[in-house]
Predict the 3D structure of the following.
Amino acid sequence: MFDIVRLYDGQNTGGSNKEKVGKKTVSEAQLIGRGARYCAFKINTNDNPYIRKFDDDINNELRILEELYFHSENEVRYINEIQRALIEQGLLESEGEQPIKLTLKLKPEIKKSSNFKNKFIFKNKQVKKQYNYVKNIADFGIAKTNFYYELASGKGSLSEVFDDNEKQETKKNKSYNLIELLGQNIIKNALLKFDKFTFNNLKKPFENLQSINEFLGENYLGKFEIDIQGDASQLTSKQKLAIAISFLNTLENEIKGNIIEFEGTKYFYPFSAESVFTEKTLLVPKDQGKQIQEITHDWFVFEKFYGTSEEEKLIELIHTIIDDINKDYKNVYLIRNERHFALYDFAQGRRFEPDFVLLSQNKNSQCHYQFFIEPKSKHLQQVDKWKEDFLLEIEQNYKALTGVNSTTTYNNDEYKIIGLEFYNHSNENEFKKELRSKYVL
């Protein structure tokens, strides 16, 4: 949707309350909101098509795909009121809260430098989670499981690990193998009641599964035990079916909880620094605690910086140790990542844009170093713990490829890709110690 045209004149006001926006104007603001949010397209394969992508990237030529024009007569009162309604809807910023334009320019000497242009930035990709390694129910993460069922209440529960109390309680219940107790025919009838357990749907998490009969075998359902509370010696077919349905309902939830749609590759692909860190103009939220400032250090790539106090302190820290770094390393660059690139955590493929990357090259070994650095306020450290966990996993897991479409990896003596623990001014000494140890300073 690119245009909405208001074809009538006049205004539906808020009655005697002149501060209140009229109902008609509110509905028109809601219409504009629906149009503004309509952006169902993808640029990359794994993009969410229902999220706006270019609101803050002013110079992006694709921004026009998300622009919406609202046309009306030049009625001052109506325009003022529709603006108020849009502010109330959260579609416009109120006076004084408009975002700030941040123009990112490379320092002139950086733009001319072949040392910078020839640098690589390595980043991984988000891909569909593959389950080709799963050959039994335990491989999928459902191990040491048991099913507990009360005949009288008809309630069941599945526990991965019993604590001591639960173990004591289950001692007085008799344990049975699922298949032997219920029989394959009963379980097959129960499977028919679940879309999740059709063969085609089972093949998604269990890629190596060859048939429903195999699913009932020793590697899958045949592994499960049922602890029955009550007399299970004279179970009717109806009771068996109820137990099977209860079991499968619980198992379905377990499988859903373990399914992950995406993962991040352990392959990191090289892109030229020149192509990744481009000049652009962004709209950034106005923040009383931030201000646009010039950074004159020759190792800081962009002319200007707009960030938090933690990010400022990180720049100051690098300034205090840069002379030590320069003794053994050359072509040292600290780069603020202003939506230039993203990484994806190995476990779930969650998107993550680390705030800084520090590039350098050892003068003796010629090995290139790439550090991902994320300053983080203390109150956000626990919320974003998964990001730090991912950063710390990179060094032991990455494989640096020689080209975007290559399967040949660099030797670790040529490129080292390292994620560091969160930086916070309160842990500055520990962070500095870690950075020095990686650099062997």
Q: What stands out?
A: Confidence is low (pLDDT under 50) at residues 159-171.
